[in-house]
């Protein structure tokens, strides 16, 4: 069974940093591209970032480019999102998704003073 | 343009056919996917490659495409189909985009 479990969310002040993790199991992690998608409270889905199966190709939404960094460790079956210079508008539930066909349950990030 | 446009809401009675559209220039060249999201839950893929249905998704869910518009059709909608639905595609610049979402009411 495919499982994706996000962690690392929490309350952080504007300008602060947070690192999200996503632990994958039930499939060959190194064979799949991965994505981070977020959803602000009461709002729609917003794609954040993509990383290829090897990690060699990476894309970011304009809204996070230069502030967020996606990475993966195929030996640990893990996906990461390093978030710096956080803003109030980054407040959202962050989901990791296997090629957007399977999703985790999400982790809440709240940016507030 | 790199936008996908959906109606904000669609309402049908149980047993009726619900149709949700998604429009955008990228859809003329790229496949679309559809996701169902119920309150407090993660999204679930219900259609990929415009019209393919993942295993485990009821046959009443179908998808179609014409030009720059894709359509999710739920034939014989049931109360449990009430949810938010999002279309999704990739843009020419390798970015990914979601539609704004459609709230389906079945009552």
Distinctive features:
heterodimer; A: 113 residues; mainly beta; four-stranded antiparallel sheet; B: mainly beta; three-stranded antiparallel sheet; 9 strands
Give an account of the 3D structure.
Chain A is mainly beta. Chain A has strands spanning 3-7, 10-12, 18-25, 34-39, 45-51, 58-60, 68-73, 78-83, 92-98, 102-103, 107-111. In chain A, the strands form two sheets. In chain A, strands 2, 4, 5, 6, 9, 10 and 11 form a seven-stranded mixed sheet that branches. Chain A is globular. In chain A, 37% of the residues are buried. In chain B, the strands form two sheets. In chain B, strands 1, 3, 4, 7, 8 and 9 form a six-stranded mixed sheet that branches. Chain B has a three-stranded antiparallel sheet with strand order 2-6-5, with no helix packed on it. The model of chain B has no long low-confidence stretch (mean pLDDT 95). In chain B, β3 and β4 (44-47) form a beta hairpin. Helices cover 0% and strands 45% of the residues of chain B. Chain B has strands at 9-12, 18-23, 32-37, 44-47, 61-66, 69-74, 83-90, 96-98, 102-106. Chain B has 107 residues and is an all-beta fold. The chains are: A mainly beta (113), B mainly beta (107). Chain A binds chain B through residues 35, 37, 44-47, 50, 59, 61-62, 95, 100-106, and chain B through 33, 35, 37, 41-45, 48, 54, 84, 86, 88, 94-101.
Summarize this structure briefly.
Chain A is an all-beta fold.
Q: Which overall shape of chain A is indicated by the principal axes computed on the Cα atoms?
A: globular
How much strand of chain B?
35-45%
Shape of chain B: globular
**Alpha carbon gyration radius of chain B:** 13 Å
Question: Structural class from helices and strands of chain A?
Answer: mainly beta
């Amino acid at each position: 069974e495919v499982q994706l479990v996000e962690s690392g969310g929490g309350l952080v002040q504007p300008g602060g940093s947070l690192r999200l993790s996503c632990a994958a199991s039930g499939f060959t992690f190194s064979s799949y591209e991965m994505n981070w998608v977020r959803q602000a409270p009461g709002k729609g889905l917003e794609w954040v970032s993509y990383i290829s199966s090897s990690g060699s190709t990476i894309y970011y939404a304009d809204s996070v480019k230069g502030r967020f960094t996606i990475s993966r460790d195929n030996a640990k079956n893990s996906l990461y999102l390093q978030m710096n210079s956080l803003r109030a508008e980054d407040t959202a539930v962050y989901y990791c998704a296997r090629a957007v066909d399977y999703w985790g349950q999400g982790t809440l990030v709240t940016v507030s003073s | 343009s790199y936008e996908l446009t959906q109606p904000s809401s669609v309402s049908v009675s149980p047993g009726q056919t619900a149709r949700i559209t998604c429009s955008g220039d990228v859809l003329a060249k790229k496949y679309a996917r559809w996701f169902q999201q119920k309150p407090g839950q993660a999204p679930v893929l219900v259609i990929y490659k415009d019209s393919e249905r993942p295993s485990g998704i009821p046959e009443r869910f179908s998808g179609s495409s014409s030009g720059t518009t894709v359509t999710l059709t739920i034939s014989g909608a049931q109360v449990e189909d009430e949810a938010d639905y999002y279309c999704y595609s990739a843009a020419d610049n390798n970015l990914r985009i979601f539609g704004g979402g459609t709230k389906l009411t079945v009552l």
